[in-house]
Each structure stands twice: as C-alpha cells, then as structure tokens.
Known about the structure:
There is one protein chain. The chain has one domain: Nucleotidyltransferase, domain 5 (2-Layer Sandwich). Helix 2 (79-90) packs across helix 7 and helix 3 packs parallel to helix 6 (157-170). The protein has helices at 61-68, 79-90, 100-107, 116-124, 144-155, 157-170, 174-193, and strands at 2-7, 19-26, 36-42, 47-52, 73-76, 97-99. The chain is globular and about 45 Å long. By secondary structure, it is of the alpha/beta class. It has a six-stranded mixed sheet with strand order 1-4-3-2-5-6, with helices on both faces.
Amino acid sequence: MTVHLHLGDLPAEVDLGEVIAVDTETMGLNPARDRLCLVQLSAGDGDAHLVQFPERRYEAPNLCALLADRRRLKLFHYARFDLAILRRYLGIDCVPVYCTKVASKLARTYTDRHGLKDLCRELLGIDLPKEQQSSDWGAPSLSEAQLRYAANDVLHLHALRERLDAMLAREGRDGLAAACFGFLPMRARLDLEGWAEQDIFAH
C-alpha cells in the first residue's frame, strides 16, 4: 500500500483511470452539519490518493473535474452518503456511480451484513481494521493509523465490484442494480433537500 496525501486538491498529473474508487471522511454523519475533511481515491492499483481539507476551503478544481467526469465510473461503498457530502461541499454531481453496498444488498440476500468489513472478509478474505472509524478527521495533522484506515476504504472496491458483478449477473439482478445506481445521485439530493427519513414512494 502506498498512500499519497495532498492538501486542498488533487495534483493535475495524477491519473486514476476510467474506474475510480472514492470515499470520504467527515466530522459526522449529518451532511447539513458535519463538514467534509478528506476524500480518498484509488485506481485499484494498490495506491491511494487522499485529499485533505484542513482549513474548510473547498476550491479543488482538479478533484472536482475528475469526480464530475461522466466518462469515469466512480465506485463507492454506501454512495448515498458520499454523494450527498460531495454535492454539499464540492458542488458536484458525481456520476456515473457504482455502490458496493447496494450491490451487496441485491446479490447477497442470504445475509444482513453488508458493511465494507463484512464484504472484504467474505468475498476477498481480507480483514479490515476499523479502529479509526470514529476519530477526529478534522485534525490539522492526521495520524499514520488514520491514513491507513482511510486508504483501506478505497483499495479493495475494484475487487469487490468484480465479485459482486458476477453474483448480480448470476442472480439476474444486474439490470436492477444498474437502475438503482442511476438513481443514487437523486437519492442523495433528496437527503440534502429534507427527505432523508421519508419514503416518498410509500402510500
């Protein structure tokens, strides 16, 4: 694992290919209250690029152009939250999208365990450490443990997508998954606009 930490923006020379794993770290789980602190990226090659926003400055033209590029597929785990945070703080719609959590819920109906740690353990035989999940991501200087944790959240998404795609195709749910992925940016927007807890499709 190689972790590259960048302050404020992604360097223009970094090429992450056409399929990019993405994650975010924030001060909490409320997009309206808790600020974006870190964006993690990986091309699935064992390298992770982390963009830190230590001074609440979110002018990151290179990062925004990459994430908004419709020619590149962005892989998330629980995309709904990350998409809302990215829209709230960077002002971008991150499309097209693939979510390993949604894919898991459609493909792995034999379990109710769809966390990233659960997926990595079952599908890849990798045990992810999660000790830094609840830590101060707004600190000016992040610890080595925090950086390793943040990197691990994107390093395995490409491999998970490959395994989940095979399961979705086997169960005949790949088309359903694609439709759900297409709706995720709007689901995130509904969260930001005040419909986070309400099912607008219910009677």
